[in-house]
Amino acid sequence: MEKSLNGRVVAITGGARGIGKATAAALVRQGARVAIGDLDIELARVTAAELGERVSAYELDVTSRESFARFLDSVEEDLGPLDILINNAGIMPLGAFLEESDASAERQFDINVHGLIFGMKEALPRMLARGHGHVVNLASVAGKGGFPHAATYCATKHAVLGVSEAVRLELRGTGIDLTCILPALVNTELGSGVEAGRAVKKLEPEEVADAIVEALRSPRFEVFVPSSTGAISKVMALLPRAGREAIVHWLKGDQILVQRDSGRRAAYEERAAHSEPQQAGAEVADTVGS
Predict the structure, then answer these.
(1) Longest C-alpha distance within the chain, in Å?
(2) Residues 287, 138 contacting (CB under 8 angstroms)
(3) Residues 262, 16, 147, 143: what is their CA dihedral angle, to the nearest 10 degrees?
(4) 200-255: per-residue pLDDT in tens?
(5) DSSP-based three-state secondary structure for 58
(6) 267-270 long-range contacts, Cβ below 8 Å, gap at least 24?
(7) Please, what are the domains in the chain?
(8) What is the pLDDT of residue 142?
(9) Of 72, 170, 267, 285, which sees the most CB atoms within 10 A?
């Protein structure tokens, strides 16, 4: 039977814009009470006001476990016990691997991986104490392969899938569900200046949000968006590496992120490069794949 989300308390990281914002809106329509955490607290407040009285805004730096703990403490104090955590915050700077700064690589792991781990470590004990809950981790189809000019980003999304699968097995029999969402290219700031390839169209954030809601109502571990990318992934896994790479090249999947419009991405890249607590609006929340 499908689960009802009416009255559920949901916390979303990076919820001020993009997929996070679209997910908050979709959950409100399901009757949930939503807390959006974001480094850009002013934008988060604007988003909360836009989405209505069932949405609250909180400041959150996912790279700090202490900040994450304060965020969830405040959510539970204001809205009640946490039912669902959606680890959505992430950044995706693009560029050749050998030209990437160490600071950029560290920042991606701090936000995309450590932030998600901090979130699970803070949320899961609360859920385990009550015997129910659901964690949703935003991964990417980039976590299933390697895409030139996004090497470190791909590494972070492989890490998200790996840690999620291991934690899911540790949670077996506890009443806690864990889901990974694997979107392809999404029409958000993170995906700006990047065009879809031959196999998959560019998604709207609302499509990813609807997939998240569906996974919360009918839990399962891996959710590809669109679902066709899941079928493609399964077929590709059966082929030898040379065959997989030949198909990816024919589909131009190895050029999608290389042949980007740098001008259209400039504003996003600048914010992602300064995604630190003192830089308002810098934590950019969404994911992107091939």
Answers:
(1) 54
(2) yes
(3) 180
(4) 788 999 999 999 999 999 999 999 999 888 888 888 787 788 887 787 777 777 77
(5) strand
(6) 267/189, 267/192, 268/189, 268/190, 268/192, 268/193, 269/93, 269/94
(7) 9-273 (3.40.50.720)
(8) 93
(9) 285
Q: How far apart are CA 115 and CA 88, in angstroms?
A: 10
Confidence of residue 257 (pLDDT cuts 50, 70, 90): confident
What mean pLDDT is predicted for residues 58-71? 98
d(CA 206, CA 44): 18
Strand-pairing partners, residue 133, are 176
Cα(284)–Cα(38) distance, rounded to whole angstroms? 9
Tokens 């990974």 belong to 180
Q: Which two tokens stand for residue 65?
A: 């476990």
Q: Which two tokens stand for residue 273?
A: 């490069």
Give the C-alpha distances (Å, rounded to integers) separating 173 from 166, 176, 177, 251: 14, 8, 10, 42
Q: Which residues are catalytic?
A: 153
Residues contacting residue 239 through CB under 8 Å, at least 6 positions apart: 247
Burial class (CB in 10 A: 0-12, 13-18, 19+), 230: middle
pLDDT recorded at residue 280: 37
- The confidence score (pLDDT) of residue 290 equals 28
